Amino acid sequence: MVHQYQLNGYNIVLDTCSGSVHVVDDVAYDVIAMYKEHSADEIVAALLAKYGSRPDVTEADLRQCIDDVASLKESGKLWSPDTYENLAFDFKNRNTVVKALCLHVAHTCNLNCSYCFASQGRYQGDRALMSFEVGKRAMDFLIENSGTRRNLEVDFFGGEPLMNFDMVKKLVAYCREQEKIHNKNFRFTMTTNGVLIDDDVIDFCNKECHNVVLSLDGRKEVNDRFRKDYAGHGSYDAIVPKFQEFVKKRGDKNYYMRGTYTHYNTDFTNDIFHMADLADAQAGSLPYGAQRRLEIMRALATSPKLLLLDEPAAGMNPSETAELTETIRRIRDEFNIAVLLIEHDMSLVMGICEGIAVLNFGRIIAKGTPDEIRNNPQVIEAYLGKKEG
Q1: Model's pTM, two decimal places?
Q2: Which partner from 69, 213, 264, 315 sits 20 to 30 angstroms from 376, CA to CA?
C-alpha cells in the first residue's frame, strides 16, 4: 500500500510494506497518484493539461517520470507486496488480552512548551479534565479484557496529569478495591513536569506508584529554551528543587528523568550528567543496576559509533535487567549507535539483538536472528545437551 501526504511544503510518498519513504516534486507526486488506475497515455494527457505552461514539463519528461515510478515498483520500493496480508485476518480472530493503558487524565497543561506534540496538552481541542466516571470505565475495561493476566499497567498521562490529581487519587483507590475482587495487581506510573509536586504528591507517589517519570530537558539553558510557563518564563528554577526533594524522598523506588534531545543540544550526554549531578548522589551509592547504566552513559560522552558491552547484565536481578534492556534499546534507536553485546543472559540477548552469533568453547556454531538461534539444533544441543536414544 502507498500512502501519500503533504507536510510543511514536502510531497511525501510512503510505501508502507517496504518502509520506503520518497520525497518528490509535484509532478512525480501526481504521477504516483494516477499510476495504478490509469495508462501512461492518460497520465501524460492529464498532466500536460495541468502543467503544460511549465517549460520543464514535457511529454518526454512525463514518460521518463512514469518509467522511474515503474522502476521503483519493480525494485519493491513502491506497491511492494503486503507480506502480512494473510496474517491480519488471523490476528483479528486471536484471543488477545489488554495488559496496559495510558490514561489521558488531563487534556491541558500548566506549561507552554513550544515543541509540545500535544499543543500544550490540548491536542488541538478544548481544555478538559477526565471525569472519575470515564476513568472508572477505562479501568473496568482493562480488567474485563485482561484475561488471566494478573499484573496490569496504568500510566497517568496528559497534558499534566497532576492537574487532575484528586481524580487520580480517587481512581487509584477504586483500583485497589477491584484488585481484591478480581485478583489483579495494578502498577501505576505518573508522568509529570514537576510544577505541582508537593508533599501530598510525593507521599501519594511513594505509596501508590510503581514508577514516576520526571520531565526535564536538561541543563538550565537547554530546559528553558522550550519549557516555559504561560508568562514566558523558563521552568527550570521552579521545578528542579521540587524534583530534588521528590528524589530524596523516593528512596530506592523506581523513577526516571526524561530529557529531550534536539539539534540545540547535540551534546545531550552533558544533559544526562547534569541530571545525575542534580540527584546529589555519589555513583558508588547508587543501586547496582543504576551504576551499570551510569557507566554506559559515561561511555556515550565520547560520542562513539560503536558501543562494546561485555556482560553488562552480570549480577543484575530481573528488574534491573529489564531496565538495562530498555536503556540499550534507546541508545541504539535514539542515538543511532551500533551495539556489540557479549552476554549470557538470554532474556537480554533475545530481547534486544537483531543478529546473534553463538560461541561454544571459543568456536562460532551458529549465526542468525533470535528466532533462528532459538530453534537451531546445534545451539540447543550445546546449551541443553543431547537427547539420549
Answers
A1: 0.60
A2: 315
